[in-house]
Amino acid sequence: MIEVSGLTMRYGGKVAVDDLSFTVRPGLVTGFLGPNGAGKSTTMRAVLGLEPPSAGEALVNGRPYASLPRPMRSMGALLDAGAVHGGRSAHAHLACLARSNGIGRARVDAVLGQVGLSGVAGRRIGGFSLGMRQRLGIGAALLGDPGVLMLDEPLNGLDPEGIRWLRDLLRSLAAEGRTVLLSSHLMNEMALTADHVVVIGRGRLIADSAMDVLAGHFQRDVLVRTPRPERLAGVLRAHGASVVTEDDGALSVRDLDAARIGVLALSEGIPLAELSPRGTSLEEAFIRLTEHDAEYRAGSWAGSWAGSGAGSGAGSGAGSGDVREAVR
């Protein structure tokens, strides 16, 4: 596991990570989310022992990463795909890492094949595209066949095939019982990949929740189709629901969950053709959770064009505090 406990990272007068605690467990892909400047990369650097904490600790399998005898066999990590010697070949780069951790050369060839770089193994990294560098960085993280994997923005630069490949890879590794921590700003892809999410803002924990639980807290409505919409709408309104008839005749129901709607319809003998809870997207949930924690927020283009100087605003945030407490 990765265990972060009371982690605080200070740089002069700035607190980048503020008493942060969470656990990344095996068998799951855990998404690590937060606005720019939230402290995600700083936290990952602390896990790797690259930055000493001001307080608290970050452990890998119960120990500081730096104390592990051959750390790449315990946890593989990718923080910056560009942090490589451009004059080396892909094979030479991985071979050097392998030797430092007592990993055989056969593993280097196997990993190059796994990440799709066998055909360019002898080429200098300086000529690689961003996507190729990302694949090489992922290969370096996989080199020790570790039980824990930590990747910071590995989707940047990958084409659609590469994104799908990485999604399938991470989910298969988690299915083997490995621990996977993944940060990304691509919310749609994170929704397809992650089983659990940890959300931080301004260095503090905002949410620590299973993906489906997080989506449930932001449920918009329930879509109901029935051959007797007017009758059902009256029954539901009598039980406190807000009901709106959509253009195609379906009912959009709020303030009652799907199970309760089904029970009420059954009790009145009203047949149902569809009963579908509709939640917000992960992107919408993320924005609502972090609306007051974004350190960098763009102003309104229309406002600046008109000379008003109006910013985008933080939104109403109604109920966001309650949801934060519920998903921690």
Termini separation comes to 19 Å
Strand order of the largest sheet: 5-6-7-3-8-9
Number of helices: 12
Nearest-integer average pLDDT: 87
Using the alpha-carbon principal axes, give the shape.
elongated
Summarize the main sheet.
Answer: 6 strands, mixed
The helix/strand class is alpha/beta
**Strand-residue proportion:** 15-25%
Strand segment count: 13
What Rg do the Cα atoms give? 24 Å
Helix percent band: 25-40%
Provide the succession of SSEs: EEEHEEHHHEHEHEEHEHEEHEHHH
Low-confidence runs of at least 5 consecutive residues: 308-318
Plain-language structure description:
With 328 residues, the chain is α/β, with parallel strands linked by helices. It has helices at residues 40-47, 90-100, 105-114, 130-142, 160-175, 187-193, 211-217, 229-238, 258-267, 282-290, 301-305, 320-326; strands at 2-11, 14-24, 29-33, 55-60, 75-78, 148-152, 179-183, 196-201, 204-210, 219-225, 242-245, 251-254, 274-279. It contains twelve helices and 13 strands. The radius of gyration is 24 Å and the shape is elongated. The model is unreliable at 308-318 (pLDDT under 50).
